User: Fold this.
Amino acid sequence: MDDAKSFAVLCRDCGSAGFVGAPDPPYDCVVCHSRNIRCHAELFGLTIAHIDCDAFYASIEKRDNPDLLNKPVIVGGGDRGVVAAACYIARQYGVRSAMPAWQALKRCPDAVVIKPRMAHYTKISRQVRDHMLSLTPLVQPLSIDEAFLDLSGTQKYHKCSPAEALIRLQKHINADVGITVSIGLGPNKSLAKMASDRDKPDGFFVIGAAEAEAWLAPQPVSVLFGIGKATLKKLHAAGYHSCADLGAADERQLTKVLGSQAGRIIALAKGIDPRPVTPERAAKSVSNETTFSCDLTEFSELEAVLERLCGKLAKRLKSSQLTGATVTLKLKRSDHRIITRAHSLETPTDKAHILFDIGRRLLVPETQKFIPYRLLGIGVSHLNQASSSLFLDLNDEVNDKRNRLEAAMDHLQGKLGDRIIQSGRQFSRHRTGTQNDDTA
Ligand SMILES: [Mg+2]
Assistant:
């Protein structure tokens, strides 16, 4: 042990910071005597954080209903559904996310099963995001409940190290939003992401640059951030199982297995990750609209246009892996007055048939007034990354069949072109609307 080194210490309870000669815990905080302290040589120099909400949906349900506090809670379910989130009590029984609900209930028969309230969770996700943005503009959301933050250069502004600012943030989120988050701090994204997973819930874990390679060596390659299932399969087949295996790999050899990504993945296994934190200026809404060549009054004519636009909108959502929680119908009357009607979904969607169902429901009352319209549009807002949408499996049987049909049609259209399959409604009404739809 090198006594000359100074090890940074930080109290997670009172926030006081200082240095000690050696990293041997346990220390008591000199100010508040708490033992909830973190000690690490690089603690005050690291700037990349990954913040992950703990059992997000389940924590929100407990926050909103204190009767659930000491009970095992599963969000998701239904006879055929899956677990979207399980609280920490349910996890003690072996319940995990994405597990079929029947299996979860077999392991934990006393669990309280709650239907997901996605629109509500999205609202709270935005509150948590606002807290993150108060620390740095460089926030890159990964899903509804996790994000990367780059705090380089914020020291002057916050008058403290990123680690101290993050500990304060963790307390603020807990006090203001009423849920806990776990924080991973590291020199880059991959290490920060792994760190946030090591000390859950309400955790704060640090992986420094100097220890990264040794820390990673015994870990399975699957821990590395950004290694997809296909890559993982190829690595296993070629005999690379641990990060040490990968770190020792010959780049030319591995290029035969992984192609041009080989060098990047070897570097990852050694704790090197140059990917920057990139705040996405994410679209707040996605919509398609069309102006007709002549005004339309009839429901059936407007309905045919709506169906075509929903198809286009769903395609855009799917290709950018987004789902939307609020569906908005827009109509422009012949006197240019604009009418909008919106409906919020419990489960965000990227499905044309669901958009069409909602759009049609919103359209019906507007066409009973026999008003001529010159434009129709359909859009979605409150967007989420589709990859976080485990709850899509919770649809009822009818939707499930229609989802499968839609997937089959997407596949055929992808191969043969959009016009190859049209509904009878669109076929008989193809004269309505210009085909030059506007997107936004
Ligand atoms: Mg989480």
In short: Residues 103 and 268 are 36 Å apart (CA to CA).
